[in-house]
Amino acid sequence: MESFPARVVRSSRRRADLFARAYQRVAPGVLRVSVGMLYLWFGLPKFFPGASPAEDLASRCMSLMTFDAVPPGVSRFLLALMEVSIGIGLVTGLLLRLTLAVFFVHMTGVFATLVLLPHDVWTNGVPPVPTLEGQYILKNIVLIVACLTVATRGARPAAEPGPDPGPVTSAGPTLPVGKAPDEPQGPVTRSRIAGELRGRFAA
């Protein structure tokens, strides 16, 4: 008779397997919506001056990338609009390919801050340690991996080349020369050879 602890363990494993199979079917959608909600959460405050703690760093980085062609107020608004648009696209799933393309462009600009503003995102030392702003940027690695999973959902793996089947040959047995396909194939005897020879010479 199975003990009570063993029944509990077996039941827990069965429920964990059921949950895992059910979650695997919805995992890309959960990742997509969760990243979209984060973008909305981080993007909406940037519409209001001083509401986002990252707006100063983001505005200065955008000014460097545009060679001061875009004023800080305009860059803050454009950045907020981009992040909110990405968030809406991920949450709703509308224009998903375009949304993911804009997302990866945005991530390129975000990680450019690590190079363009090193004194703001790294502390002195070997190896360098990220500041609070640097940690805010590096955590986006998780978002990139999540969106890569969403972008590659349903992609078919490339078919592996199989073994060379060799030259194609005609199917079926090889017929003797001068023998029609529908003629019966029987054993070769002396009487059969003699009959064939007489028929040929008679013709």
UniProtKB/TrEMBL annotation:
It is found in: Membrane. This is DoxX family protein. Residues 193-203 have a biased composition (Basic and acidic residues). The chain crosses the membrane at residues 22-42, 73-91, 98-117. Residues 156-203 are annotated as: Disordered. It comes from Kitasatospora putterlickiae. Keywords: Membrane, Transmembrane, Transmembrane helix. Signal peptide: none annotated. It is a multi-pass membrane protein. InterPro entries: DoxX (IPR032808). Pfam families: DoxX.
